[in-house]
C-alpha cells in the first residue's frame, strides 16, 4: 500500500513539474478563425486579451473588437459546473453596480444553445449578460483554462490585468472589477 501511495505521489509531482516547465496553463494571445480562437504567440507581461468571434443566443457574431475601449469581465462557464450556478447571478449583481463602466460577458464552454439557454433562463440571467456560445471551447483554451469557472478581467486598452481560476463571490468580483476601471 505504501509503495502505491509513493508511486502516485511521484506521478503527481512529475505532472506538476511538467506543467511548470512547459508553461501549460499560461495565457496565449489569439486571433479569430471563423467561430473560434487560435494561438498566435506566447503571453507577455502586458498580455492582450484573446480575440474571439463567437455567436450570441440570437445567432449574431460578437467579437472582442465590438468592445474596444471598454473594461471587460469575461467568464467561461458551463451548465455542468456547480460553481457557475451561484457565480453567474453574482456577475449580474455586480454588473448592475458598474452599469456603463464595464461589460460582463459569459462564454459557454462547448454546449448547445438549448442547453446553455435553459440553464441561463433557470438562473434568470439570460437578459442581463452578454452570453456567447463557444462550440469548440476555444476561448477557454485560449486563456489557458484548467479549472472551472475561469474569469479574466481586461482593462480598456485590452490588456488582461487579472485572471481568476475558480469561483468568486460578489465582494471578490467587485474588487477585481474595480482594478480594471
Please give a structural write-up.
This protein is an alpha+beta fold and 181 residues long. It has helices spanning 2-22, 82-97, 113-123, 138-142, 170-178, and strands spanning 28-32, 37-42, 53-56, 61-63, 72-77, 103-109, 130-134, 150-154, 160-165. It is globular and about 45 Å long.
Task: Produce a short descriptive summary.
The chain is α+β, with helices and mostly antiparallel strands and 181 residues long.
Strand order of the largest sheet: 4-3-7-6-5-8-9
pLDDT averaged residue by residue:
83
The separation of the N and C termini measures 54 Å
Low-pLDDT segments, ≥5 res: 13-45
Overall spatial form: globular
Number of helices: 5
Structural class: alpha+beta
- Give the total of beta strands: 9
Could you tell me the strand content as a percent range?
A: 25-35%
Based on the coordinates given, report the CATH architecture.
3-Layer(aba) Sandwich
Full CATH superfamily name:
Glutaredoxin
Q: Radius of gyration in whole Å, from Cα? A: 17 Å
CATH class: Alpha Beta
Helix content: 25-40%
Order of helices and strands: HEEEEEHEHEHEEH
Describe the main β-sheet briefly: 7 strands, mixed
Task: Give the domain tally.
Answer: 1
Query: And the CATH topology?
Result: Glutaredoxin
Amino acid at each position: 500500500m505504501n509503495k502505491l501511495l509513493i508511486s502516485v505521489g511521484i506521478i503527481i509531482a512529475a505532472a506538476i513539474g511538467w506543467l511548470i516547465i512547459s508553461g501549460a496553463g499560461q495565457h496565449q494571445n489569439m486571433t479569430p478563425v471563423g467561430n473560434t480562437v487560435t494561438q498566435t504567440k506566447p503571453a507577455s507581461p502586458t498580455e492582450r486579451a484573446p480575440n474571439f468571434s463567437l455567436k450570441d443566443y440570437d445567432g449574431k457574431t460578437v467579437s472582442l473588437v465590438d468592445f474596444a475601449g471598454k473594461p471587460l469581465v469575461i467568464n467561461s462557464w458551463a451548465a455542468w459546473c456547480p460553481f457557475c450556478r451561484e457565480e453567474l447571478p453574482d456577475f449580474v449583481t455586480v454588473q448592475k453596480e458598474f452599469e456603463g463602466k464595464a461589460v460582463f460577458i459569459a462564454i459557454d464552454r462547448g454546449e448547445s444553445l438549448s442547453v446553455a439557454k435553459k440553464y441561463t433562463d433557470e438562473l434568470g440571467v439570460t437578459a442581463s449578460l452578454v452570453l456567447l456560445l463557444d462550440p469548440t471551447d476555444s476561448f477557454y483554451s485560449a486563456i489557458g483554462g484548467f479549472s472551472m469557472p475561469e474569469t479574466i478581467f481586461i482593462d480598456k486598452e485590452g490588456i488582461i490585468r487579472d485572471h481568476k481560476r475558480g469561483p468568486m463571490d460578489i465582494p471578490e468580483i467587485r474588487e477585481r472589477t474595480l482594478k480594471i476601471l
